[in-house]
Amino acid sequence: MHTPITAFYAALLGIFFFYLTVLVIHGRFTKKIPLGDNGDKHFRQLVRAHGNFAEYAPLILVLMLIAEINKSEPMWLHIAGASLLFGRVVHSFGLRRHAGTSWQRATGMMLTFVALIEMAILNLLVLY
What we know:
Elements: H1 5-31, H2 41-69, H3 74-97, H4 103-125
Helix pairs in contact: 1-2, 1-3, 2-3, 2-4, 3-4
């Protein structure tokens, strides 16, 4: 029986994305910012954590799904899924807490890049 690997990571990432969304909505209400960031540095960081997640996670999940449909080795899918999940969580934490560079942001991006490059290469390999 096949376990849907991409669905598992997509569900966890979806829950985390909902959490980031709630943080942004809460920030908008408490700071009375209906649109944009109103020049609020902390709120801008929160919005970017949310936006950065939305920029990377969907593409990598699509690449994972394509690789899974093409019957790629489950181990590679789990490596990419775990890298993406932990990378996005750590990166979001770092982006929310630090205006500049931080080890969390750097680590989160590296883990995200591992997932992105791994899935891109894996999908290219099934072509040959």
